Batch of 3 targets.
Target 1
Amino acid sequence: MQWLVGVDEAGRGPLAGPVAVGVVAVPYRFDIKRAFPGVNDSKKLSETKREEIYKEVQRLKRQGTLRYIVGFSSAGYIDTHGITKAVRRGVWSGVRCVAEPGASFIKLDGLLKAPPDYRQETIIKGDVLEPVISLASIVAKVRRDRLMKKLAPQYPEYGFEVHKGYGTVHHRKAIGAFGLCGLHRRSFCKNLPSRG
């Protein structure tokens, strides 16, 4: 094996915005913990720490040491095809983009599966237990958060720059007051009181 590949998603549960899938490939014997001190599941890290690790990921990509990609499936795609298919689409396209079947071993978080022509292992709590999956969770989270902040000014009533589309009290109140916007996953908001 030449490459170890980690796969994780960010944004499966929010009421708005895309789901993001991160795929990171490192040389098989690469020491991730040494290269990225403090690497962990993205949810256990501060935004500052995630950004710090992501900048180093970008530097190592420019240098040719590692590969990564983050794919997004929109709220519209999620509403049409479901969250499971949206995540699988991101996993399969991301893995095929950065990893060769005969030269890569894929480690995936939770219940995720790579295309069947890859050697792979799915690990419950992999984002905590496997540093390469932690890296994938970080790149997915950073890129999704940045996108939600970038889109927030188009819909200032909702506060997407703060909650990133998750179902916080503030977000639910905004939906009640202003209805749904173009970023909302209508299939996720069916049971919420809303003007639209």
Target 2
Amino acid sequence: MLGHTFRNIKRWNQILVILIRYGFAGTLKEIGLGDVVGKALRMSRFTREEGELIQKPTNVRLRLAMEELGPTFIKLGQVLSTRRDMVPDEWAEEFTKLQADCPKIPYPDIREQLELSFP
């Protein structure tokens, strides 16, 4: 049980760091995660390349973050790409890149995640 809790904490931290890297620290603070964001910022070092990344439009940064966050987030983006009633057209258009252009995940990686999730 403790191992499962530790994995969850580790994943939450990973999600936060990725979202911060893509320029969503302000959004995370707005939803009440200011303390956690502050800790993550102190623990992380961001490169010049990441600094240039936050210059991109918000919808592009979110799509890139979804790609890095993995299959669950990619699926969310795929669903949103079909829901123009929920997101602006330019966002839905950007998320369509998650339909066919998303990174492929090797089967051994998928199997490992399944084995961790369903012991």
Target 3
Amino acid sequence: GNGQPYVGRNSGFTVEPNELACICVTRSQTLNKCDWYKNGSLVNTASAGGYSTTNNGSSPILIADGYRYNFIGDIYCIYVYNRFFTEDEVSQMYQSTRYRFGM
């Protein structure tokens, strides 16, 4: 019941085996924009789907439960915010947290 409308977006990059990476995805329905960042740098921009809102559904949020394959690796931390971040804000967050993980 929560499957439509459906929008799928690809990051445009991979995380190699044994690579430690900081990934950020930020989305704005108002700007119709979805940005993917790796280690504080913008890698890919796509439309957010063109819908005026993102609805809250009753489906569970699954992390690392892939469409075809599950994620194999370690996830150190996850941050969830209810707003869109600019490129400068993402860079600042990365710079302020990367040292915790020796990056």
